[in-house]
Amino acid sequence: xxxxxxxxxxxxxxxxxxxxxxxxxxxxxxxxxxxxxxxxxxxxxxxxxxxxxxxxxxxxxxxxxxxxxxxxxxxxxxxxxxxxxxxxxxxxxxxxxxxxxxxxxxxxxxxxxxxxxxxxxxxxxxxxxx
Length: 130
Hints:
- By secondary structure, the chain is mainly alpha-helical.
- The protein has a domain at 41-117: Cytochrome Bc1 Complex, Chain D, domain 2, CATH 1.10.760.
- The protein has five helices and no strands.
- Helix 2 packs across helix 5 and helix 4 packs across helix 5.
- It is elongated and about 55 Å long.
- Residues 4-31 have low confidence and may be disordered.
């Protein structure tokens, strides 16, 4: 006789948890950085070179031995800023004292201008020899 009551309570708890989870995923995060204005790709390239991003990510943001490809298809600007401030891998964090949000917006704008890599099929030397 108690099983229907327990099942009903469990179902209510599960529904409440899913509701809270759905709300948490749609609720704005107060810790997210304020969106910086659209950046300058010209200044972004200068910053990319002067701060040393190229040392790990390559001159054309194509990736290197120490860092992944980050251009031209970059993540959204707020996520980019959040990652640069608190990276999860071996990248050092860049605080706002080192790079302002507007500087990161400029770098982000530059990354969008980097040409896409060639399709390996279009490179004659990479075609298989029969």
